[in-house]
Amino acid sequence: MLQVPPRRTLARRARVIADRTRDSFRKLLGRVGLVDVSLPQWWSEVSPDFARRCAYVGIPRWELSSEALEMRDRYVAQFDAESVDRRMPEENWKRADICWRRMPKAGSVLDIGSGLGEFVNMVAVNNPKCAVTSVDTRDWDKWFDVTGRIERIYTSIFDLDQSASRDVVTCFEVIEHLPPERLKEAVGLLRKLARKQLLVSVPFIEPLPLYKGHFTRFTEETLVDLFPDARFTVFGKSWYRSEKIRAWILAEIRTT
Q: For the chain, which residues make up each domain, given as ranges?
């Protein structure tokens, strides 16, 4: 007997097909010079003024550095390829790689919300003279310290004080999980902890309803309000509007 998919599944498939059809047409227009195909279709939602403040990096086209590939191999050796690929997909390594390559040289780094440790381990391995501190509420299932020299602090972002200040502070994909009414408080704390530079990343113009566990939708208005002095880099995940997470955005702020 023919099984008919649920109506919701059919609607989702129809949206994906429509997005891909529009994308094919857009690429065709690009070949004759009528549109810029270097940017995804959802980029039209970004205002020209904000777009001028942003660099754009396409995650699918990003080639992992040798340092990132080596770090992934270390995780595979510590655990196993199947579980590493499941918990740490390639796009995670690409985001960690981009952030690591954007980070300035520093004598000390504080990474808040280190998760499984891809980024903070890359910093520790490739900057042997840098003092590296990792903050999280607990050790996650694939967390491990590759070098054995990462200082580990178990606490909330709101419980950090000036004793945790470092030259560079990084906080990647953390503040979207915080209560919206405490966002400005959290960003203020991060600024105080960063002696020279602060780097923060969040999902960008996330479609509604928000992903489970996310409590703030970061639009250009939200970002300019929180980071009026920032330089921005957008990490584009997908060309299609139908994706749940289409992009992330990195804010870089000099604090000196």
A: 1-37, 38-254
* 207/219 Cα distance (integer angstroms): 10
Looking at the predicted structure, is the pLDDT value of residue 6 above 70?
A: no
Q: Taking the complete model, does pTM exceed 0.85, yes or no?
A: no
Examine the pLDDT at 2 and tell me if it is beyond 60. no
Q: 38-254 belongs to which homologous superfamily?
A: Vaccinia Virus protein VP39 (3.40.50.150)
Single-letter code of the amino acid located at 139 = D
pLDDT by residue (tens digit) across 16-41?
565 565 555 445 444 444 444 467 87
Q: What are the b/e assignments for 39-56, b being 16+ CB within 10 Å? A: bbbbbeebeeeeeeebeb
Can you give the three-state secondary structure of the chain, one letter per residue? CCCCCCHHHHHHHHHHHHHHHHHHHHHHHHHCCCCCCCCCHHHHHCCHHHHCCEEEEEHHHCCCCHHHHHHHHHHHHHCCHHHHHHHCCHHHHHHHHHHHHHCCCCCEEEEECCCCCHHHHHHHHHCCCCEEEEEECCCCCCCCCCCCCCEEEECCHHHCCHHHCEEEEEEECCHHHCCHHHHHHHHHHHHHHEEEEEEEEEECCCCCCCCCCCCCCCCHHHHHHHCCCCEEEEEECCCCCCCCCCEEEEEEEECC
**What's the pLDDT tens digit per position in 209-242?**
999 999 999 999 999 999 999 999 999 986 655 5
**Could you count the other beta carbons within 10 Å of the beta carbon of residue 134?**
25
Q: How far apart are CA 136 and CA 115, in angstroms?
A: 7
- Tell me the pLDDT tens digit for each residue of 194-214: 999 999 999 999 988 999 999
